[in-house]
Amino acid sequence: MQTAAALPGPLPTHHRTHSHSHPGPIPSVRRKPAATSVWEDMGHTQAWVLNQGFNSSSTSLNVKPSKPSHYRKHGWMTEEWVGQQAVYYVPREDDAAVTLSSRHHHSGLHRSGSLRRDPAPATTPRRAAHWEDMMYQYEVDAERWMRHEAESRRAAEERLRMRTRVEEELRRIDERSRQRKHEQRRMFEENRARMMAEAREHERRDRPMLEKKVAESWEKYESRWSGLASSSEPLTFANIPWPTVIAPRTAEDLSMSAIASFLLSGAHSQETTKKERIRSAQLRWHPDRFRRLMARVSEEEKAVVEEGVGAVARVLNDLMQREKGNSK
User: Fold this and answer.
1) Which of 6, 74, 127, 328 could make an S-S bridge to 2, C-beta 3.0–4.6 Å?
2) How far out from the chain centre does Cα 82 lie?
3) Residues whose CB is less than 8 angstroms from the CB of residue 260 and which lie 6 or more positions away in sequence, other chains included
4) What pLDDT digit, counting tens, does each position of 124-160 carry?
5) What's the pLDDT score for residue 295?
6) Which residue spans within the chain are E strands per DSSP?
7) Terminus-to-terminus CA distance in the chain, angstroms?
C-alpha cells in the first residue's frame, strides 16, 4: 500500500473552458472609478480602438500596421471619429463613466469589447435648471407657434368670409342686372306689340278714308298730266304733278315708299297690273321725255326740278327690278 507521502502532489486544477454552446464571447461589466477628466475616458477609448486595429490586423491580415494611415487605407475611420468628438462634446458634471470589457474567445487571438455608459447620477441643480430653461423655452415656442397657427386660421377664415361676401355681392349684382335687362326687353316687346296693334287699328280704321284720298289724288294726277300737253303755263317744283299722295316740298320727299304707296295702291287702276303701272310711269318720267317740259321751268327752278325728276326715275327703275324679281 502506498503511503500518503508516496502520493503525488495535489492534482492540477481543471479550469473551465468556454463551452462551444455559446455563440460568442461573454462580455463582463467592470465598474471603475469615474474619470477625473472627461478626456480620460476618451483616451481609454482611443487606446482600445488602436488595440482592436492591431489585433484585427494580426488575426486577419497577419500584419502589424506601422502607422494610422494603414487604417485609413483599409477604411477604418473609428480613430478619427474618437478624435472628432472633442469638437462636439460639451462637458457636464454628471457625465457617466464609460467602461470597457473584453474577453478572449477560444485561442485568445481575437478580442471584442463593448462600450457601456454607467447609469447617470442624480440630477444636479445645474442640470435641473438647464432642464427647466429648456422646458420653458419649449413652452414659449409652442405657445408662440399655437398663437401663430390660430392667427393664421383666423386670417384664412376672414379671407374666406370676405371672398364669400364679395362673390355673393357679385351674384346679387348680376341677378339685378339680368332682371333689369329682362324687364327692359319685356317692356320693349310690349311697346312694340302695342304700337303695331295701334298701327293696324289705325290702318283698318283709316283705310277707307286713305283709299278715298289716294283715289282722289290719282284722278288729280292723271288730270294734271293730261292738261300739261295743252297748257303753256310756267312750271315750278310746286305745281308739277308728282306721283305721291301728298305733294312733296323737296326732292327728298320723293322716296320709294311715298311713290310706291301712291302708284301701286289698290284704290285705283284695278284693271292694270303693277308692272304696267310702273312701265307707264317710266315713260312719263324719263329724263329725255321730260326735257321738252323743262323749257317751261324758270331758271331758278330748273336745278331742283331736274333733281326731283331724277329721283322719281331712279325709284321707278328700282320698283321695276323688284317687280320682275317677284314675278320669277
Assistant:
1) 6
2) 58
3) 315, 319
4) 778 888 888 888 888 888 999 999 999 999 999 999 9
5) 87
6) 98-104, 111-117
7) 166
Do 108 and 135 have their domain in common? no
312 CB contacts (<8 Å, ≥6 apart)?
242, 243, 254, 259, 281, 285
Question: Which of 326, 315, 309 is CA-nearest to residue 262?
Answer: 315
In sequence order, the β-bridge partners of residue 101 are 114
Specify whether 148 is located in the same domain as 181: yes
- Which pLDDT value is given to residue 226? 87
Q: Which of 32, 42, 33, 35 is nearest to 93 (CA)?
A: 35
The pLDDT value recorded for residue 129 is 85
Instruction: Determine the 3-state secondary structure of 16 from DSSP.
Output: coil
Measure the CA–CA gap between 122 and 51, rounded to whole angstroms: 34
Residues 6+ apart with CB under 8 A from 264: 274, 277, 278, 319
In a domain? residue 109: yes
Contact present, 228 and 285 (Cβ < 8 Å): no
Q: Which residues contact 96 (CB under 8 A, 6 or more apart)?
A: 117, 118, 119, 120, 121
Phi-psi region of 198 (alpha: psi -120 to 50; beta: other; left: phi over 0): alpha
Contact by Cβ (8 Å): 78, 49? yes
| Residue 78 CA: distances (Å) to CA of 64, 74, 87, 288 | 17, 12, 15, 126
Full residue range of the structural domain in which residue 285 is found: 232-327
Q: What 8-state DSSP symbol labels residue 281?
A: H
In the chain, which stretches have pLDDT less than 70?
A: 1-123, 328
What pLDDT is attached to residue 10?
A: 43
Q: Are residues 110 and 165 in the same domain?
A: no
